[in-house]
Amino acid sequence: MTPPSRGARAGVPRNVLYLHTTSEIGGSDVSLVCLVERLDRARFHPIVALPAEGPLVARLQQVGCDVLIVDRMKKLTARRGRWFLAPFLANYPGAIRRLARIVAERDVAIIHTNTIHNLYGIGTALVTRRPHVWHVREIVWQSGLVRRVERFLARSSNRVIVTSDAVGRMFEQGRGGLAPNARKIPNGVDVEAFSPGPPDGRIHAELGFPAGAPLVGVVCRLDAWKGVDVFLRAVAVLRAVSPDARFVVVGGPIEGQDAYARELESLASTLGLADVVRFAGWRYRPSDMPEVYRALSLLVLPSRQPEPFGLVLLEAMASSRPIVATDHGGPREICVHGDTGLLVPPDDPARMADAIRWMLEHPDRARAMGEAGRRRVEALYDIKGTVRAIEALYDELLAA
């Protein structure tokens, strides 16, 4: 397929090159799919560069994207230690040359980097003299060095999109307030795909739980900072006071976290939770998730570190499910305590157990919170509004 030109003629779509550094399915990956799927194709044509084959490739192709594999792109992360920085820098010029050729061959008008951990967009934009949008969906708290590098480079981008106030604080100026090139555009959710409705019983049956049993769920990748161990300890407290409740962890480990996933299963066994907790892994595909949320009585987000946003909260709220989440980062902005859910201190299993128990013991109030959450998502977080805001930003750059 030959992509449309970026030419200036009226009615000709402009090519936008999106750079991403994972080919898996997580929050930022789903947000990328939601964005490119809904772009006005009469005005913009999406091309996505990924580092490797993976589940994300097929998802993007299904929504009509051109997908290119650029294996030279490496994720800048503090997980691998500072020794990773030298080979990263040595590889950098070759990656920029490859991406610059793509920009020329595909006549790209705008370069849009979809994660803070990809530093190739800014270099490619400088070489090719194309406008650059850096979409920051993460909070960098693990490494001061990486955080300083990324903040420095962000100043050279034409626009920096932050998804929440928590993310925006990384780019505040000395007296507060976002930098002049930064814009806050929250993530959005498809309010038609994620909608209220009764469960069909399939999820309970697949998990081996009694039909109609209250089901409390966590939806996340199994990464240590996500706090699934805190959730399990809360379940251990709940076991005695809410014997009918059942619990599920939906999501599997990311690269390098397989040992942590095994530790969680061992912890559940040690706490005597094997009969009431299920680890679903990556069993449920994105198309299954609306039914997963409808099967839940409530969603728990137990993150130990601040969430940059918390897309799963929007998905659950759009499904009219109440929330229990830790009180920092994006959840503090998305969830209204006492109205759409309950916020609890991080790393506090007892307080988390109390909040979950309150929800289970007050189903009418929990139902009202779920309905309030649906209204809040419709008003503030509809994916259509997110996409229109980003398209307006593209128009602003192209006009300049």
Concise synopsis of the structure shown:
By secondary structure, the chain is of the alpha/beta class. It has helices at residues 27-38, 55-62, 85-105, 120-128, 144-154, 165-168, 202-207, 228-241, 258-270, 289-295, 311-318, 330-334, 349-361, 363-380, 383-399; strands at 14-19, 44-50, 66-69, 108-113, 132-136, 159-162, 182-184, 215-219, 246-250, 277-281, 298-301, 323-326, 341-344.
Q: Helices, strands, pairings?
A:
Elements: E1 14-19, H1 27-38, E2 44-50, H2 55-62, E3 66-69, H3 85-105, E4 108-113, H4 120-128, E5 132-136, H5 144-154, E6 159-162, H6 165-168, E7 182-184, H7 202-207, E8 215-219, H8 228-241, E9 246-250, H9 258-270, E10 277-281, H10 289-295, E11 298-301, H11 311-318, E12 323-326, H12 330-334, E13 341-344, H13 349-361, H14 363-380, H15 383-399
Parallel strand pairs: 1-2, 1-4, 2-3, 4-5, 5-6, 6-7, 8-9, 8-11, 9-10, 11-12, 12-13
Descriptive keywords:
15 helices, 400 residues, 6-stranded parallel sheet, 7-stranded parallel sheet
Low-confidence stretches: 1-8
Output the strand order for the largest sheet. Answer: 3-2-1-4-5-6-7
- Distance separating the two termini: 30 Å
> What gross morphology would you assign?
globular
Percent helix among the residues? 40-55%
| Helix and strand element order | EHEHEHEHEHEHEHEHEHEHEHEHEHHH
DSSP, total strands: 13
Question: Which structural class should the secondary elements be placed in?
Answer: alpha/beta
Largest sheet: 7 strands, parallel
| Helical stretch tally | 15
Mean pLDDT: 90
Tell me the radius of gyration.
22 Å
Share of residues in strands: 15-25%
